Amino acid sequence: MRRSTSSSLGVVASAMNEPPGSLAEYNALKAEFHQALGEAITEWAEVEYVLEHLFGLVVGGHGHTSRLILDPVLAFSVRAQIIDAMVRDRLGTEKDQNVYWNSLNEYLRELAGDRNFIAHAPLISHHYPKEEGRPRRMGGWPMLTWPRGLLHEQRILPMGTDDLREIRADFKHARELCGALCEALKSAPRLYGKLLQPIVRRRPPRAERQEAKRREYQSRAKGRRV
């Protein structure tokens, strides 16, 4: 059965605590939310900057050369494909020579999806359903999600302030992993050492986290109804 956006919101809603009791409390939460959102987007910009530096290293040119090639390409997905092709060419065609980069590239593709979500999903202030006996009012918990009815199925559950902080930490971790590859290419182009091993993520892949989160929300929602 497909999960609708509205039902996803309902599950998240019923698992939350009481919303802020005043407009001042809500505005304070919203300010924290916007700060976390801005910091996450800024961190992603740093990821793209390091990837551009990586591209310059593998093509053997200066930073100006890499910018001439990449700047006209606006879509990150296309940029990522170009960088991927050049990194693979530099590291070699053998599979075991690309273990680190393959796992990092997969991580970057997943994080790009998170970046797209936080860049395009609107801010929704949750209202508790009437049937739960709570008054409908302005305010609530600020979070990013698609309004009900726009999507039949949502791969990424609504994101609140804590989620955005975790996403920012993921972006920072990816930037550091890209930086490690850059350093290896500059210091020992033919001796990658630890780069023959896959990366170690700071937390499980998104699909696993989302499924665990859905189960947690559903369990907590059932407990409220008992």
Key terms for this structure?
single chain, two-stranded antiparallel sheet, disordered N terminus, 226 residues, elongated
Strand content: under 5%
Strand order of the largest sheet: 1-2
Run of helices and strands = HHHHHEEHH
Q: How many β-strand stretches?
A: 2
Spatial separation of the terminal alpha carbons:
24 Å
Largest sheet data: 2 strands, antiparallel
What is the number of helices? 7
Shape: elongated
Structural class: mainly alpha
Average pLDDT, to the nearest integer? 77
Which residue ranges are poorly predicted, with pLDDT under 50 across at least 5 consecutive positions? 1-16, 127-139, 149-153
Helix-residue proportion: 55-70%
Description:
It is a single chain. With about 230 residues, the protein is mostly helical. The chain has seven helices and two strands; from the N terminus they run αααααββαα. The chain has a two-stranded antiparallel ribbon.
